[in-house]
Amino acid sequence: MVQAAMEWSQETVAQCVATVISSRRSVRAFKPEPLRRELVEEILGESATAPSGANIQPWRVYVVSGAVKDELANDLVAAYRAGTAPPPAHFPEPLPDVFRTRLTDFGARYYASLGIDRHDTAARMHQTEKNFSFFGAPVGLIISIDRRLKPHSWIDIGLFAQNLMIAAKARGIDTCPQVSFAPFHELIAAHLQMPPDEVTAFGISMGYGDPRAKVNQTRMPRERVQDFARLFGFPA
Ligand SMILES: Cc1cc2nc3c(=O)[nH]c(=O)nc-3n(C[C@H](O)[C@H](O)[C@H](O)COP(=O)(O)O)c2cc1C
């Protein structure tokens, strides 16, 4: 049983959790409505219940809002426009076909939701630029990790981030995880006075999503269970 909710049936708990998990979306247009510091701290505390290998808890989180967020965003936008950051290297080249197909499908859905022609490079760049102003969210988070750790520990910060996005969604707060920040580590580290051992892994925009924005109405499909999982040893 889930201990904190003993008065609820197991079925109710499962329904609540499924509802919150499945209603999370990457939101890319936010209302300016601010988030209270206490609420952000509550979400962070809940996120930190994430498991981590040997409980080393490798996540480091920088939360920016108000003028601090705006200054960081302004500098990031300027750096993006100037093209000074190293090119993004989030995926290997060549990307195996199965992933290339999904990435292409993602791009088609994303830009179609905005009415952007996929050949319109300027419009696409303009949209990408919005990553760096946290898509207008009142709160931005930069998640960093000690660069000496191995890929294994990056799993931990992903689990932390998923907890965070679910804890936020349970409170009606939306998020967008963003690896776009990673190439701008030097600029971000200088703004946030990160120790030299840390590296920016990704960022998260957080706030109340604008439900009227077309970009927020896109739904990204998922593979079916029978297409990505193989189950062994169960009775037929
Ligand atoms: C590690 C990670 C990095 C991502 N980076 C970006 C990003 O830089 N910009 C962006 O708009 N979305 C980014 N996304 C959001 C994905 O595009 C999104 O999760 C995916 O298309 C599935 O859609 P959904 O989150 O709405 O279900 C990222 C997601 C993850 C998990």
Describe what this molecule looks like in 3D.
The chain has 236 residues and is an alpha+beta fold. The chain has a domain at 25-90 and 131-218: NADH Oxidase. It is built from eight helices and four strands. It has a four-stranded antiparallel sheet with strand order 1-2-4-3. The mean pLDDT is 96. Flavin mononucleotide (FMN) binds next to strand 3. Residues 25-26, 28, 106, 131, 176-180, 202, 220 line the site of flavin mononucleotide.
In short:
This protein is α+β, with helices and mostly antiparallel strands and 236 residues long.
If classified by CATH, what would the architecture of the domain at 25-90 and 131-218 be? 3-Layer(aba) Sandwich
| Cofactors, ions and other ligands in the entry | flavin mononucleotide
Whole-angstrom Rg = 19 Å
Write down the CATH class of the domain at 25-90 and 131-218. Alpha Beta
Order of strands, widest sheet: 1-2-4-3
Uncertain spans: none
Strand content: 5-15%
Count of discrete alpha- or pi-helical segments spanning 4 or more residues: 8
**N-to-C SSE string, H for helix and E for strand:** HHEHHHEHEHEH
Task: Output mean pLDDT.
Answer: 96
First CA to last CA: what distance?
A: 28 Å
Specify the biggest β-sheet: 4 strands, antiparallel
Q: How many E strands? A: 4
CATH overall fold name of the domain at 25-90 and 131-218: NADH Oxidase
Instruction: Based on Cα principal axes, name the global outline.
Output: globular
- CATH level-4 homologous superfamily of the domain at 25-90 and 131-218: NADH Oxidase
Percent in helix: 40-55%
Structural class from helices and strands?
Answer: alpha+beta
